[in-house]
Amino acid sequence: MNTDLLTRRDFIKNVGILSGGGLVLSSFPFFQSNANEKNLIEGQKARLAIIGTGSRGLYHINHLLKIKHAEIVALCDIYQPHLDNAAALCPKAKQYKNYHEAIADKNVDGILIAAPLHEHAPITIAGLKAGKHVFCEKAMARTIEQCKEMYDVYKESGKVLYIGLQRLFDPKYLKAMELIHQGEIGEVVDIRNFWYRNNDWRRPVPEPSLEKQINWRLYRESSGGLMTELGAHQLQMGTWLYKSLPDYITGFGDIIFWKDGREVFDSVSVIYHYPNGLRMTFESIISNKHYGMDEQILGNKGTLELSQGLLYKEEPKPAPGIQQLINQIEHNIFDNVSFAGPSWVPETASTTKGEPILDHIKTHDGSNTTGAADDGSLELVSSFCTAVITGKSMPMLVEEAYYSSILALLGNKAMEEKRVLEFPQEYVIPYL
Amino acid sequence: MQPIPDSHFTYNKAANLLHGWAVKLMGTRLDVLIVDSRQESAESCWEEILAETCRLESLFSKFNPESELYKINKAASRQPIKVSDELWQLLIDCKRYHTLTKGYFDITLKDYNTVLLDTKTQTIAFTANETELDLGALGKGYALAKIKQIVIRHDIQCALINFGNSSVLGIGTHPYGDTWPIGIENPYKPKETLHIVNLKDSSLSTSGNTPTHPKHIIDPHTSHYLERKKIVSVKTANPIEAEILSTTFVITPDTITKEIIKDFPSADYTLFDLE
Which chain B positions have a beta carbon within 8 Å of A351's beta carbon? Predict the structure, then answer.
C-alpha cells in the first residue's frame, strides 16, 4: 500500500477514471482537493492530538504512523491502560487525561477524536472553538441537536472538520458512483443497506465499575447502537445517490437475542422514504452473520453491490466477438472477428456472477468491530492531515456526515416511538 | 408450453442493425445480427426466429416430458409409435446421414440398426430396450436451416446468426465487405485465431474438445470418448450437413474422412490437431 499522500492524479489513475464531467466530480470530494497539495505541504507536518486511544484510536494511530506529513504530538484518554497502549506506539507524545488540556497544548494543530459517541460533540466543539482543526469519528454526535450545533460551530469557526466516513475515499465506492452517474445501472430505484454480524459487541471489562465506560456502545446515554455505529456509514448512500432528503422515516427495533442488560437494539429495520417515492432501507442484526455487510444499489438496468464492487446487469452483455462485430458494423469497418469454436458450454454463467468494477478490489465483510484494512480509512486520515496543514476543508464531507448521522438518529427515534416521522425541517442545512 | 427464454433485441437506426439475443436456448446462447433499413421487417424476422427456435427446442429435447422425442424414447421399445411429419422427415434424413458417414453419425450414439422406421405407417420402434434418440448433434444445425428460411422469407439480404459459437450462419455478406469472415478460436489458447472462414450464404460448424469439456464426443463404433485435443470445422451451404460432418470428422480416421467427404462435394473441412 502506498502510504504517501495519494495525489489526485494517482487517484484518478487508480480508479481508472479518465475523463470526468462536472456531475461525476461533484460526487468525489477527493477530486476537488487542490492538485498541487503535495507541493504545498512538502516538508510540513500536521501535529495532532489523539483524543480517545481505545481500539479505534489505535487503528488511526497505526495509519498516522505511516503518513509522512503526520506527527502525533499528544495523546489523551481517561483510561490509563488505553493511554499506555498508545504511548507504547508514540513514546514522544505528551500524555493527557483531560481533553481540554490536550486541545490547549500549543504544539497541537489538530485533534483526532475516537471517543464514545456522546463525547463527540463536546470535544469537537471545544476543539473548533479553541481554533484547532478537528477529525471526529462517525457518527457525528449522540443527538440531532448536537449534530446541528457541531455543524453550526464548524461553519462559524472557519476551521477544518472531518468526520470518519471512509467510503468517500474508498476506490470501489467512487468507481461505483461514477458508473451510476454514467447510467450503467439505469435509473436507480432502490437502496438496500444491511449489516449482519454474529457477536455480542462487548469488550472485556476488567472491573464492573468500568462497564459503561468500556461498553459504551451498548448504553443509550452514550450510544445510538447499530444505527450510529454501523448505519451511519451506509445511510450516507441516501444523500450521496439520491441527492435529496427523506420525507418520512419509520422502522422497528428490538432486543431479540443479546438480552444481557444492554439498552440498545440488537435488531433494527428502518425505512427512509423519499419525496419521489424512492426508498432506502437499513437492516442490522447481530445474531446472524450469513449475509455480512453490503449496500445494494438497484437500477432498472442493473445492480451494484458496493462493498463487493460487483455489477450485475439486468440484460446479459453480448458475447465479446459479437460485440466486436456490432462495433465494426456501426463504424463502417470490415474486418474478421474470432468467436467460432466448439463452444459447448452454456454461456450464461457470467451473467449471474457479477462483474468486478475494478481490478484488485479489496473487500471486507464488516465483521471486524475496530476497522477493516484498505477501506479508505488511511486515505481519509491522510487527507485530514493535509487539510490541517493547508487549512482547507474537504467539500461535501461534513454535510454528508451530518445527514447520515441525522438519518441514523431519526431512525432510532422512529423505532423508539414506533411511528412514522417526518423529516424535521429545522435540521435542513444548505446542501443538496 | 416451452418457457420463453431470456431474450432481448436492440435496433440501431444509424447502422440499420438489429441485434437480437437469447440465453438458455438449446443449452446455449443465440445471437442474431440483421442489417436492414426496414426496422419492422428486421424485428418481425427476429421474433419469428425466436419463436421457431423455442418450438424446435421443445421438439428436440430429450429431457422435456412434453416433447415428442421424449415420448418416443419412453415408449418405442415397447410398441411402434406414430411420428409427426416433421420429425419423420428428420429421422429419414438421419438414417441417410448414418449411411453416408459409414455409421459414424448416429443419433442413438450406439447402434442405429436397433431403430426401425416403418414408412407405410410412419411409425418408429426400437428393437433394444436401451435404445434412445439424441438429436443434440444436429439440433442447432436444423434450427439454423429453419432460421435461414425465415430470413430469406423476410427478404433480408444481410444477416449473421451465431448459435453458441459452434454453429454460425452467414447470409449475404458483412455490410462493408464481400463475405462474413469468421475466425475460429483456439479453445486452449484464447485470443489465438486458428483459421478464418469466409461465409457467404453458408454456415460453419465447429466440433471438438475444450479445456472445460475434454470428453463429450463418443465414437459409436467403440463407445469410447474422444480424448485428443482436436478441432474440426466444416463449412457448407446446408447447416444440418455442416453440423453432422463436424461431429463425424472429430472421430473418423483420416482415410474415412476423405472417403465420406466425396459424397458432400460442396463441403470444406479443416482439421486442427492441438496436441
Answer: 23
